[in-house]
Write a structure and sequence with these properties.
It is a single chain. By secondary structure, the protein is an alpha/beta fold. The protein folds into 2 domains: 111 residues, no CATH class; 110 residues. 44% of the residues lie in helices and 9% in strands. The strands form 2 sheets. Strands 2-3-4-7-5 form a 5-stranded mixed β-sheet, with helices on one face. α2 packs across α3, α3 crosses α5 and α7 packs across α8. The radius of gyration is 18 Å and the shape is globular. The relative contact order is 0.13. The N terminus is likely disordered.
Length: 261
Amino acid sequence: MGRAGSTVAARKRREAAPPGYERLDAEVPVLYASRLAGKARSLSGYLAQGYRVLGRILSVEPPRIIAYLVAGEDWKRAPRDNACPYPPGLPYFTRSVEPPALVLPEELSTVFRPRTTATLPLTVWHELAHAFLLGREVVRTPAWLGEFVPQAASAAVARRAGLPLEEHLSRIERQPGFTVRSFRAPAGAGDQMSFQNLLLLLGAAALEEFGEDFLRRIFYALWEEDEIVDEERAEKLLGAALGGGGREWLVSRPEFQEDSP
């Protein structure tokens, strides 16, 4: 999820929704297929929550972005960075249009697990966090750090919004021997979801242990990096952002270890 925003297209188009789409004006405007008006209103509420909360947590001016709620039959026509459409049902962030856009499907792919009342808002806030992070240039990082940041941010929004996060986390199934650092791309949809779920567990645990201020520190640390971040540097950056004892805590976590104990 979300990696589509890591490159900038050479030429940007302005709002590029398929013909017949309507617009819901809000802090994050939503372009949507007319038959999805109810879903667009719900989506707009989640976007507003995340937009305001992330701006406060990070102490930044929220980026100017837009959201597309794309009907299944229009998925191949949604704005994107690459020539080939992204897999149906998988949200992403793209800077191929102006303003940059969150592209959200009519229905989430069945790969998203667990399915709870928190699944959709967590997914929306994850992509929104990518939009905040990629509002400035960010160098390449290991996959686990690049996805940990939006997962932890989405958990922080959930905590503030009073979402039943603990119930959602309790239903995550762990694969024996699978950790965020043992994950290797390319990977199947199941492993991708396991990877994201472990990062969500790790992000929620970090929030519980260190509070949400580390999110601001890791965002700014990534914005200030000007060279590719390797594994060792990534570990140092996140450990420092967590605060005193942060790196020791990080390497002790079963989700993070190279090989699961």
